[in-house]
């Protein structure tokens, strides 16, 4: 389910859809249905699985570490870290980029450690 997830700029909607699918699979794995009214936390504790949002963050930050280790002239690094400055953008909210989602993950990781 998370193949290539380190390259996605995930929105809240994507995380919600992935968590719904994950819980559906975990319930099926445990033999429970929604009618059994077993809490998600109980199922996660029983199976021993971390929430999918944490796994997404770990994958993205691990990939970011690999990108940072590459030399500056590497295509993956120059494509990720360079920013076009003189471009006319459209109206509305700008699209979420991968590096913005990494910055968000780093902020969340720092605040969780405190």
UniProtKB/TrEMBL annotation:
Highest taxon of source: Eukaryota
Protein name listed in UniProt: Ataxia telangiectasia mutated family protein
Organism listed in the record: Panicum virgatum
